[in-house]
Amino acid sequence: MTEAVPTEAQAEITDAVRKALAKHGYARLTTAKIAAESSKTEAGLYYHYDSKDAMVVAFLESATGFLRRQLEEIEATDPEARLREACDRLFVKFDDEPRRRTNIAVMELLAHAPHNETLQGPLLELESSNLTVVKGIVEDGIEQGVFREIDARGVAAFLLAAASGSTGFYLALEMEDIGAPLHAQAESYIDSLLV
Amino acid sequence: MTEAVPTEAQAEITDAVRKALAKHGYARLTTAKIAAESSKTEAGLYYHYDSKDAMVVAFLESATGFLRRQLEEIEATDPEARLREACDRLFVKFDDEPRRRTNIAVMELLAHAPHNETLQGPLLELESSNLTVVKGIVEDGIEQGVFREIDARGVAAFLLAAASGSTGFYLALEMEDIGAPLHAQAESYIDSLLV
DNA sequence: GTCTATACAGTGATAGAC
DNA sequence: GTCTATCACTGTATAGAC
To answer: Where are the bilayer-spanning segments (chains A, B) (predicted)?
Structure first.
């Protein structure tokens, strides 16, 4: 999938969508609110995108790239260290406000996807992308004899699910005190994968 | 929290909200669609509830009761069997269409909660309720020497997060083939809790 | 309690000037 | 490319008859 490089104006709108989602959520997202977060007027947005949905999709595509890079940039070479670092980045810290809000927004889009076909493709891409990267780390670990002979895809999915689920009651409901114990259990789970 | 017993009409509206959410999602939920799923007209709803939000809150309260009962009705007495059964019920089956849709709807509400104060209390109640039940099972297991000396609350949160996260890419994105491996990893994790 | 009718504030999107 | 003006429509909620 070679996505077209967005123009500068498109990138600015994409960022405005992110900010508007962070402030108001998808259910209350309007083109007026997107315009308010950008340097453009409401009508101006429509020169660059055909519809509100198209703007949201553009946001998702940029988020996919950001998330993939976040996981690929991990420097450690040892598979165990890499998996722990990936886990650390997936379980978003409570006080990382922008990232927290972005994660919650993606979750709202995800939950709405069954009712909006336009969102399905980009979200599938986003999740598959994450899944592939984490799966790759686990596979390396198995090959190198660090992890047991486990189902790499299942393990990756389980860790991603736990991280994404933690966004729910930990981040969205602000159950601050559950973050650390949750993360600790993810670490325990990784322990159990070692040979 | 002793909730007032809903009238018959209120219960019918609550159910209509559930159906409308299953069909259209929260972002596209309207009072007209709620009315369409019930025997009442749009204006008629407002005799029983003051606002659309109040109807959604009523739905959440009934869902909380349903979910708690679902976990409390488990018949096994052995803590390990009870935890596995709880897990089985939390990881909703793909072809259980109504439950799948309801889970997705709750997830969408959860992700929107930071932007709608009215939803926060009921959702906190819902999640706390689940957390307490699962935590109780784990605590029993520790006392009876079945599980290691683990952090019961953290374990409960981790399992709930994984189950809730699986609703995201497994249920919402219809990644059917990931359901079984995901569930299998939850089982492996439970294995790792045993003494 | 439930209906019809309607007020009235948005909402997505377009037309056409600059 | 970006603006102002505007439109057709939808959405929540209320008034008042029955």
So the answer is: none
With respect to residue A91, please indicate whether it lies within any of the assigned structural domains. Answer: yes
Give the whole-number percent of chain A exceeding pLDDT 90: 95
Determine, for residues A112 and B170 on separate chains, whether the beta-carbon distance falls below 8 Å. Answer: no
- Say what percent of chain B tops pLDDT 70: 98
pLDDT in tens, B18-54: 999 999 999 999 999 999 999 999 999 999 999 999 9
A30 CB neighbours strand D below 7 A: no
The letter for the amino acid at A161 is: A
A24 CB and strand C closer than 7 A: no
Domain that holds residue B41: 8-191
Of the candidates B41, B38, B39, B163, the residue with the CA atom closest to the CA atom of residue B99: B163
d(CA B85, CA B83): 5
Asked if the structure places residue A41 within a domain, the reply is no
The count of structural domains within chain B is 1
| Position B187 in a domain | yes
**Is residue A22 in some structural domain?**
no
Mutate to test the interface with A, among B33, B110, B126, B148 (most CBs of A within 10 A): B110
Chain A nearest-CA residue for B187: A158
- Minimum-distance nucleotide, CA of A38 to C1': D2
- For residue B175, the domain's CATH number is 1.10.357.10
DSSP E strands in chain A: the ranges are none
CA dist B73 and B155 (Å) reads 21
CA pseudo-torsion sign A25, A26, A29, A35:
positive
Average pLDDT across chain B, whole number: 96
B107 → closest Cβ in A153, A168, A189: A168
- Which of B24, B178, B191 lies at the smallest CB-CB distance from A157? B178
pLDDT number for residue A169? 81
